[in-house]
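anyone seen this seq b4? input:
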Amino acid sequence: MRQLAGIAVALLSLPLLFWLQHAVAAEWQEANAYKEQVEQTIELSDPVVTIPMALYDRNGDLFAEEYTEWRDPLPLSEIPLFAKQLFLESEDKGFYEHRGYDVAAIARAFAVNVNSEGRSQGASTITQQVVRMRFLSPEKTYERKFREILYSAELEKQATKDEILEMYMNEMYFGNQVYGIGAAATYYFSKPLSKLNEAETAFLAAIPNNPSMYDPLRHFAAAKKRQERLLGVLTASNVISGTESKRIAETPVVLRLKQKNSRFPAYQTYAANELKQLIDEKEGFTARLKQAETDEQRAPIRKQAAARYAEVVNSGIRIDTALDPRKQRKVDERISSLLNGSGIQAGSAVIDNSSRELVALYGGYGYRKTDFNRSFQAVRQPGSAMKPLLVYAPYLESGPFTENSLVDGSGICIGSYCPKNFGGYQYGVTTLKKAFSRSYNTSAVRLMQHVGVEKAFAHLSPFQFRHITEKDHQYTAALGGFENGTTPYELADAYTSFTDGTYQPSHAIRAIKDRSGKVLYTWDSKRRTVWSPKTASAVRSMLQETVQTGTARGVRQTTSFTGAKTGTTSAYKDLWVAGLNDDYTAAVWTGYDRPHTMQQESERKLHLQLFSAALSD
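predicted toks r here
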């Protein structure tokens, strides 16, 4: 009877066995096919990693950092042996023997997981952890585990053990957006990994196992306990003695968190903006965009330019700038003190006359990074501050004229355009110097009429005026009436040409370097003559006269030469001063972000005080 029952059970089990055999065969066939497919298509390229961008001033001192993730990758040779031992002994003792995965460990983990009806043990090697960090999602499924093993085997073919360990040490997550043990050292202790003592190093090694549970900022005690367990692992492996373990465990660990460096945010913002211009110029995107005729043609070029910019920025570049921290600090303090939270705003740019480099910027009262930067983003009509560039210098270039040549200041109409002088006053024949220093509008229009509108605007072509268009080519521009206008930076940049008649586009960036110090990009530093020596000398004479007896009287004269030109738009909505002394060229715009009359401020010469604050050393 028992035999018949056995036969019956066997017969009944045949369909089940057949199904299981078929399922196993199908699974095995699918796995082999999947393995072959993965091995053929697997590409273990470097992942996109955002490495901090650092900005340095003219003295070589760090003044700003840009990052969302804090990383400080180190070559394996610069990672202390003790740090490597902590992870090798606790995470993967057989790292240098296995081929990317540990079969025995996987079998043990599988048995544990089956018995516990869960997936609580992973048995991942360091290679597998690198694969997970770089190429795969963290989900805990057997399919993902299988892919992880295949990727690990492939990674071991493509990289040496030391290269894999270096990846691991630099890509582990240490909480608080910190990646890699080098970055963890500088973030949590504000010093390089090589300067940490053994207690601090072991404390950091405690974090990656569970960055939330062992977050030093919230769970310091838990991280300390795990540090002591790791020291116990090293003792059990005879890496250190029990006495050494006790000594290290008893050494106090004191966190000293890294503070994000951003001392001069207005200058930092401009330098980041200029970086994109520099990359576009050197990679040919600027020229290609100029040649493109339609938006459809420009769109892919802009996309390529954006991708290249992101690639460069994320690589962890160093930006060497011309920032003069002493000058920048004075500009910030002096202008802010004068504005004093009144609601009135200002934007300014200061350029070194000898190097033609941008040394300081003022982005606005209370400026913070990512705010509207009035030094280069506030596009406003410049008023009479544009006259030296668009009217007087072109006129002097057009013939044998000097600052003492005569010009008519009486009323004038060109078609229906009949400009008026300030206050409606009428003037007769006067010298260029007087018309300039007193800002006679009728004289300026007459001079442009003599030169010709197109020829006058041709003299602006060397400069960096990005907002002037064909619509501006009218006589109203002689008085600073533009469709859009200009910025303090653009105006200061153009005024540098009155130093000696030569012009070189001013820049904040001296060089872009990679992490090894190799120069990636620099601006071309060629000067060209844009005004004759005669013209430059005459304009300087008129600028000086304006400070001494004209509309800029009140500007502080601190060097042997100081010259400036003011500009005021209708209803006193914008107050401008641009000029130079022996050392610097500067331009300052003063006004409200939402245009409002500034007549009282004009009368008490606030704009002249702000200009003096920017120009004076």
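The radius of gyration is 35 Å. The CA atoms of residues 280 and 286 lie 5 Å apart. kinda curious what u guys think
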